[in-house]
Design goal:
alpha+beta; 56% helix; 7-stranded mixed beta sheet; elongated
């Protein structure tokens, strides 16, 4: 017991003697906000996948250090400079965009940690509107490309199109993709319950596994799914068939039920990831209403 007491006393003494001033508190808050916004930026871009790769390499480096793998450690030591330069080149568009937006944001030291998403990713009406429009267009072989944004923000691709910012409805989607209309060419990006933009240009996939019978619309759908976590719906103008694309995988000739179920899965997953605080407030409100009744 005496040994444990001496250990914890020696451990706590530096903390007890540590004097924290108001300047230190402000500095800690500033660093916390910077780290929070950095993590948020990473999660909303392709850098999130990169970060997971860096973590894997870090674990590999730790194992190499423990096992004294000198050659591997030498490769890490000499390759880190080249790797940093390569990362700056690859993520140059994201870095430039982040710096451009830095001056446009109002930094708040408190609310970022307690804010919660008050709006659902999309409602039941939005799901029904997307499904109805998709199969109405499929009947008359109207080509369509609908991108549903998930966790990764699609501002980069939205900027290539025309801003719409209108509530999702089957009538709106059908009108956008109608032949000989100004907005029919390109992709539509849906964010939450709203159509964010139309006529958006997407990156084409370079995969050699794509069937030759598929055109540019399908290749663009696969391309956007390879670099983002979005869910894409494609209506073929030649055959009228409906395809769903996610994570670089194309599922062809999907049924109405399949599409509805996939959209419901995305909606449910988004709702599960909301802060628990919101659920607590709802339960508390419900309990108060029940007591009053």
């Amino acid at each position: 017991m005496e040994v444990l007491k001496e250990f914890f006393t020696g451990l706590l003494n530096p903390i007890i003697l540590l004097k924290i001033s108001a300047t230190d508190i402000v500095e800690i808050l500033i660093i916390a906000v910077l780290i929070y916004n950095l993590i948020k930026w990473i999660k909303n871009t392709r850098a999130w996948t990169l970060l997971k790769g860096i973590l894997v390499l870090s674990v590999f480096y730790l194992i190499a250090s423990i096992m004294s793998f000198d050659v591997i450690l030498w490769i890490f030591a000499n390759g880190i400079g080249v790797s940093i330069t390569a990362l700056i080149i690859v993520f140059q568009p994201e870095l430039r965009k982040a710096l451009e937006q830095l001056g446009k944001k109002n930094i708040n030291l408190v609310t970022p940690f307690f804010s919660s998403q008050e709006e659902d990713k999309f409602s039941e009406d939005t799901i029904n509107g997307i499904v109805k429009a998709t199969y109405e267009m499929a009947k008359v072989r109207t080509g369509a490309l609908i991108i549903i944004e998930r966790d990764m923000i699609l501002d980069e691709y939205e900027a290539t199109g025309i801003q719409v910012d209108a509530k999702v409805s089957s009538e709106l989607l059908i009108n956008i993709f109608e032949h000989n209309t100004p907005l029919h060419d390109g992709a539509v990006i849906i964010r939450g319950n709203r159509v964010a933009a139309a006529t958006c240009y997407l990156p084409l996939s370079d995969s050699t596994r794509i069937s030759k019978e598929l055109g540019t619309r399908h290749r663009a759908a696969i391309g956007i799914s390879e670099v983002t976590d979005s869910f894409t719906i494609v209506v073929s103008e030649e055959t009228g068939s409906v395809s769903a694309v996610q994570n670089g995988e194309l599922t062809r000739r999907v049924s109405r039920e399949y599409l509805y179920d996939r959209l419901k899965e995305i909606q449910n997953k988004a709702n599960e990831e909301k802060p628990k605080r919101r659920g607590f407030l709802r339960r508390e409100k419900k309990e108060k209403t029940t007591k009053k009744g």
